[in-house]
Amino acid sequence: MSKSLVCFSLALTLLFASNGKAAEKGFVSLFNGKDLSSWQFRGQPAGLRVEEGCIYSGGADGGDLLWTEKEYGNYILRLEWMLSGVGNSGVLIRCTPDSAWDSGFEVQLLAPWTPWRDDLHCTGSIYGYVAVTNRPDETTGRWHQLEVVCDRKQIIIAVNGETCTWADMDRVESLRGKHLRGRIGLQGNHSDPQQWLKFRNLRLRDLDLDPDYVIRGFRDTDPRIQRDTHGAAVKLGDTIVPRLCSLIAEEDSLPSAGARKALFEIAALASAPDAPKALRDKVVQALKDQAGSSGSETLRTYLGWLLGLLGA
Asked: 123: Cβ–Cβ under 8 A, 6 or more apart, which residues?
């Protein structure tokens, strides 16, 4: 892992482990506190239901898994949970629902009723893959805060504001083939029938909506990250055009080539016959702005060609 990547991941950890209001900027709620309309069930719907503004699962209710409707790649997930005395649950990360444990992994949430549960299987661990290095408080009957940072191949887990697990997927052989994007899942309580769990205050900051974050992915040599970065950049459209142009002007073979490809697709989508006029106008203006301010003849030539495709 490069020094710059370590520093960036550390900065994420320090920023998003904070409880201040500034650290919540960019977060959106995943649960409205009223119903599960933005989630999908596996198992009995009554097994994961809304009670008193929380997602509730009882041990005898047949709850299995609750999935987000959308897939996410790079993000910061925050939530609160509470377990009964023998509660057992988890949060699933970057999963395909029909092959959850093959595609992604589970962040364990466990009551401290089983002394034999070691650091590889306790709360905050990447269950069965990465042990905690700072075992968190597992006291039952009280609310705890969980934060999961998915920063490309870096996974950082914090409980109650303290980092407990940090994994580099390239350094953990069993994680190397795991997906880099997928759905987020909530596991129903699967201990004794009288036991229960609650979730509340689920919110997420999607890093793939941040142009400054996305642009860094073009410097990564991993083909999977390059592919995901390309997709995220194209979705951002005109908002990432200045940053793509900066990479193209560097004329470095890897990031420049990736930026050229993304910029071409943004222009192509904006030039499609069924593209909204507002979209085309935004892309044209962004390209013109960069063409007028760039000192790179290579970049100006490329932007002129793209503007020609757009009929501008």
From this structure: 108, 109, 110, 132, 135, 136, 138, 144, 159
Q: What is the pLDDT of residues 154-175, one digit of tens each?
A: 999 999 999 999 999 999 999 9
DSSP 311: T
Query: Domain map of the chain by residue range?
Result: 3-207, 210-309
| Dist. CA 283–CA 261, nearest whole Å | 15
pLDDT tens per residue across span 167-212: 999 999 999 999 999 999 999 887 777 889 999 999 999 999 999 9
Residue of 169, 44, 162, 8 whose CA lies nearest to 94: 169
| CB half-sphere exposure, 300, CA atoms < 13 A | 7
Using alpha carbons, list the distances in angstroms from residue 256 to 8, 211, 287: 22, 16, 16
**Neighbour-count burial of 71, counting CB atoms closer than 10 A to its CB (0-12 exposed, 13-18 middle, 19+ buried):** middle
Contact (CB, 8 A) for 231 and 237: no
Please list, in sequence order, all residues whose beta carbon lies within 8 angstroms of the beta carbon of residue 28, skipping any fewer than 6 positions away: 203, 204, 205, 206
Q: Where are the alpha helices (DSSP H) in 174-276?
A: 211-216, 223-236, 241-250, 253-271
End-to-end CA distance of the chain: 44
Rounded CA gap, 48 and 39, in Å? Answer: 11
pTM for this model (two decimals): 0.90
Which class is 3-207 in CATH?
A: mainly beta
- The span from the CA of 42 to the CA of 310, in Å, is 46
Structure tokens at 248: 């193209």
